[in-house]
Amino acid sequence: MKSLNIVIILFLVCNIAFAQEFTKEMSQKRDLKIDSISKIDFLSYDYKYLDKAFKIKIPEEVYAKIVKDYNLNPEKIKKYKDSLDIVLMAEFDDWDTVRISGHRINYEWKRVGYHIWMNENEVLELAKKLNIKMPYRLQELFLNNDPKVASEIQNLRTKLFEQYRKEELMMIPTRQLLSLAFKYNPEIMELKNNHQKEHNKQKK
Fold it and tell me: Which helix (H) or strand (E) holds 127?
């Protein structure tokens, strides 16, 4: 009986170890996939069903087929973003690629501002000065620590340091700085607080 219990325990341990290794392997494969997709320049991509201004130019029958194949509800397709997702699915047939490409195409000036602590008008002025037409193109400059926005990055560091008095803010990598700036942006924090209040009301 004792030996049987040992065998069962060993079997369970082996199964758990295999499951953990399998999960780790799948996670690594997904990370590699996302990394590969993220390297694609979706703002200059030669799309089959979008023109250079990202206006939709898909045949009705192709559009209808995608809606049907993925069991999408036509009544929920109301905005450009909804239709764009369908067009991108026709283009790539992969939800991760649709999500990342759609995110970049639909990126907004105000979202750039959330990351760099500027209002939308200030962001638009900066884009005009740098001759940038797409919001995500400007965001890329910050993400890549481009010299063109070096003074803006330094200003952001200073603003955050003056707010929180943490020395590491003056030295952390730019991507981490942008992430923290977004998280602690007063507008974002207010939006989160209001959302939480609304959620709490609904629970009562």
Answer: helix 120-129
Cα(40)–Cα(120) distance, rounded to whole angstroms? 27
Task: Tell me the pLDDT tens digit for each residue of 11-36.
Answer: 555 566 555 655 666 677 777 888 89
pTM of the entire predicted model: 0.81
Single out the residue of 153, 158, 63 nearest to residue 116, CA to CA. 153
Q: Please name which of 103, 74, 71 lies closest in space to residue 88, comparing C-alpha atoms.
A: 103
What is the token pair recorded at 32? 């590699």
Tokens standing for 22?
């399998």
Question: What pLDDT band is residue 37 in, cutting at 50, 70 and 90?
Answer: very high
Task: Quote the crossing angle between the two packed helices 2-38 and 95-105, to the nearest 10°.
Answer: 40
Helix (H) or strand (E) holding 17: helix 2-38
- Three-class DSSP category at 56: strand
The one-letter amino acid code at 49 reads Y
175 vs 113: CA distance, rounded Å = 15
- Which of the given ranges, 1-5, 163-167, 177-181, has the highest pLDDT on average? 177-181
Domain ranges of the chain: 60-105, 115-203
> Which amino acid, 72?
L
